[in-house]
Write a structure and sequence with these properties.
- This protein has 340 residues and is an alpha/beta fold.
- 36% of the residues lie in helices and 26% in strands.
- The strands form three sheets. The chain has a nine-stranded mixed β-sheet, with helices on both faces. Strands 8-9-12 form a three-stranded antiparallel β-sheet. A two-stranded antiparallel ribbon has the order 10-11.
- A hairpin with a 4-residue loop joins strand 8 and strand 9.
- It is globular and about 60 Å long.
- Bound molecules: N,N,N-trimethyl-histidine (AVJ).
- The site of N,N,N-trimethyl-histidine has 11 residues, from strand 12.
Length: 340
């Protein structure tokens, strides 16, 4: 079910494993989402090359505190966090991307352990190769077993990492799921994912989860609707991507970015609202979509957590919260959970 593929990196410390479980069908998701009674698109499709660059730009915005708040947690409490991981751990990271924040932990782990095995899990093999190579340049005692897999099915990735794994004497696996990526999942989806993760772990293994916290609307809404319009561009790029890849005919200026905080559900919702009644053709799908004036496509939910939601998430998925670290404003939390 998994095959190691040739990687062009002649480094014996790097290995890339492919799984079959990367649900990679943009066309299918666009058809399903845009023909639904309430139109929607999954946020995972934001991240083509341009979308990933726009997300990087978002992280520089003064209004978007999320990345900086988590970096503060990992910087201020890094030693304590790595202490709590324990000795000789293997690090798995779900949705590793460029693995920039991971370095704050690897800096410390590679000093404490003779050898660190790092298992980044991502759907983008180029990203895995690039970030893997960069990490290996900087850490002499690192081994990278990159797994190309859909991180919403962590058990598949963990199985791949087990069969093809590098042998290191280790006490426990610590799974990193940073950056509030969990926020894209609704409560049921988050529990389903963490349950699947728990199935791939042994009792005593750990999850280190980054979650954005509930806070004032006055802070949350500008973070997702910035005056420079970068988040608007990030959102609209989804339509541009449909135009580029599926022969869509979206006029980008006929849609407007909207983001608002739904306090009842504790989530930011992002939408693209049609500025008029219009029809849009998507050639590759042989489809024409009708929009009413003001009708929206729901493109993202970003759930915000608190102690209660994190506790019930852990409880429902087979983990026990060991410790929580927050930034100085208590806007973001990183939580260490142990598999029961
Ligand atoms: C990457 C899912 C953590 O929800 O804050 C940023 C994505 N969307 N601005 C988030 C995002 C709009 C981000 N996550």
């Amino acid at each position: 079910m998994t095959v190691a593929i040739a990687t062009g990196i002649p480094d014996p410390r790097f290995q890339l494993v492919e799984t079959e479980a990367h649900a990679d069908d943009f066309a299918r998701d666009v058809r399903e989402g845009l023909t639904a009674p309430r139109k929607w698109l999954p946020p995972r499709w934001f991240y083509d090359a341009l979308g990933s660059a726009l997300f990087d730009a978002i992280c520089f915005l003064p209004e978007y505190y999320v990345m900086r708040a988590e970096a503060e947690v990992l910087t201020a409490h890094g030693d304590e966090i790595v202490d709590a991981f324990g000795a000789n751990v293997r690090l798995v990271e779900l949705g590793s991307g460029a693995a920039r924040k991971t370095r704050l932990l690897l800096d410390r782990l590679t000093e404490r352990q003779a050898e660190v095995e790092y298992v980044p899990v991502d759907v983008d093999p180029q990203m895995l190769e690039r970030s893997g190579r960069e990490l290996l340049n900087d850490y002499a005692n690192l081994r990278v077993l990159a797994v190309r897999a859909d991180f919403t099915r962590p058990s598949v990735a963990l199985t791949a990492a087990k069969t093809d794994g590098l042998r290191a004497r280790r006490s426990r696996t610590v799974v990193l799921f940073l950056g509030s990526t969990i926020g894209n999942l609704d409560p049921e989806g988050a529990v389903a994912m963490l349950r699947d993760l728990r199935e791939g772990l042994a009792s005593g293994d750990a999850l280190f989860l980054g979650a954005d916290l509930r806070k004032s609307r006055d802070v949350l809404e500008p973070a997702y609707d910035d005056p420079l319009g970068v988040t608007a561009a990030f959102n609209l790029n989804l339509l541009a991507r449909i135009n580029r890849e599926l022969g869509g005919t979206f006029a980008l200026d006929a849609f407007r970015h909207r983001a608002f905080y739904d306090e009842t559900h504790g989530r930011i919702e992002m939408h693209l609202a049609s500025r008029c009644a219009q029809r849009v053709r998507i050639d590759a799908l042989d489809l024409e979509i009708a929009f009413d004036d003001g009708e929206t496509i729901h493109t993202e939910s970003s759930y915000k957590h608190d102690d209660a939601t994190l506790a019930s998430l852990a409880e429902a998925s087979g983990f026990t919260i060991e410790k929580t670290w927050r930034d100085s404003r208590a806007w973001f939390a990183d939580v260490l959970m142990i598999a029961r």
